[in-house]
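Re: weekly structure request thread

Next one in the queue (689 aa):
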Amino acid sequence: MKAKSSRCPYAVLNLSIGSDDDDIKDAYKRLSRLLHPDKRRAGKERDAAQEAFIELTNAYEILGNNTLRQAYDHFGHSGVSIVRHNPHQLNSLFNHLSKLHEDGKPLEALRILQSVLEDTALKKYQKELEFNADINVDLHLCGANEGYGIRRLEVKSTNVSMSAAVPMPRQTNASSPFAHKEDASQQRKQKVKLSIGGQSDLENGLASSKSVLAATFQPRAETDVVSQLVMDRKHMETTLSSTHLLSSGTRMSAKMTRAYDWENSKAGKLSFGFSSNRALTIFQGRTVHAMFAFGVGSNLKMQYGILSLVTWGFGTTDSVDDDEEDEGPQDDDANDDERQDDQGSDNTNTEKQQNSRNSIKEKLPPPRLSAKLVVGSQFPLELNISQNSLFHSPSRSGDATLSWGPVTGFRIKGMLNREISASYITSEHHESQFSSSLGIGLEHTPMSGLKWLFRYERPEGVSVQIPIFVSRVMSHTYMSDLVWYSALSFLVDETIGELTHTQTSTDSSADIKCSIISDKVTAIQGEQQWLFSSKATFNAEKQANIMRPIAASKRRRETECNGLVIMKATYYRQSTDPSASLNVTDQLQFYVQKSSLVLPASSKSLLLGFSPMNYQPESNRSYANKGNAIFSWILNHAGKDEPTDREAFMLSVRYKFKGDVFETSVRDNDSLHIPNKKDLNLGPSNLVS
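Done, posted below.
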């Protein structure tokens, strides 16, 4: 069973970070012989030795394996725990990274690990905080009406909308002896979420804003109840809505809204809304997802109505499924033959991924078709077609929309979309579950003219949209602008794809830098949080008791050969508090090897037998909670060390060597090498005690 300790494995084996494999093996063999539980008497002494030996073995397993050592060096114990998850499975992360190390591709292995950790951190972030930010900047290309002269961009309007939702802690009565098990289980499934946001508009120099406050209660997994308050300078609107998923797959929603006017003392206007969506089989082989919604006022006058139909492919969906089902067994048989022919080969995963890419190239997924009818809108009729894996690329897609209105006429919109992963985490052997999306396209309307569209979305919930007005319909340069910006959109999309591919395929040290995950902050904070726990202090005391008999034996041998004898060693904090010190004489004598003592340049509190005393580090104080993890990230990337006060700790050693007494002091994170001629010589040992 692995120890759950978070001590630094280098400190446990008393090694420096740059130690080679031979040094790691020698240190483990030497310490394992000294701390082996079979050499202890049965009882508490053997149990304590067993815990120390497990911690020693755990450190050796991390440093003795290239995959785990790389994970710890860059991401601490959090990276090691993820790599160690299910290591015996054939397609596990550990086996995949180990294969890359064997092939001489450690940089590729590090990219994959960074991608997995980034996905894990983002999943955790999304569970703790749901953040959404929509930014819309409407730009106008001045000079477009004339068709000549220098064109310049001006901001016509700006719209910013932000919201953040935080799950509230839930209280259960499961501890009550009278609580029924089913009631307690149902109570644990209930979720409460509080969200706050706002919207700000700026158009032609006039600004307006409004605030949004909402609370969501989920009594069951299929039911949501939302209460929302929207307020600005002149109006206030309250909404109560509920959504329920039926067993048939139909999702039904109902809401009630009351709007108030601050300048009118009369009661606010009341309105109701209802929507329903589900999958329908209109005729054999065709499945359509339908959505119907309408809203009425208190006078039962209809305010809006929506009918949306979505389906996939031009042919029948059953034919597509049948083709896939017919091809499935053939692919399985082929894969079985390949496994039998290539048994023992290490290229199985690569072949599978290559086969999946080839299958995408051979057969594109069916396009998504949708039709929408909206009553009370500027464009009541809208048709849309979207295609994934465009140009045989799984990261590209495109969509085209045709809308019609009785007053505005036709609106035509086309977009090219591309999924972009960060260059430092992209790998040809691993695809991140989270990526950014960039869309470039054009929009034509008879009244507004031609617009050049940009859309950028981040997986954290940030969306930026920038429509740029280019030319009016009546301009004599309209057709040339249409052709020019269409070609430019395609060239920009291709250039971005080429740049991301080039950055991904470059094996340089710059690609290894991870700008999101703070490696050292993550590692050091994890170690400190464990070190300053009561369990760590208790384990250190038991380890010191095991080390004392070995230290006494070494002291006798060193005295007989006039070698290195630790007379007094104190690990202390520079303060007047007498409790902030620890006698580590026996611990240092334990580490003496052939009349020499070498301690690595790391915190001495990580060594076996050391305890953190009564010091509480800064990282464990007010800002070391979930909501302030960004603070540590900012400090790390601002070039500052983690917010701890390790420089205030010192190690003072007085030792005897070759008949003389020496004394030296080092800071907590400095290395220690004794004997050293530069140390202070206090005089002969028969005169100095």
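The chain is about 35% helix and 35% strand. The longest helix spans residues 478-504.
Next request, please.
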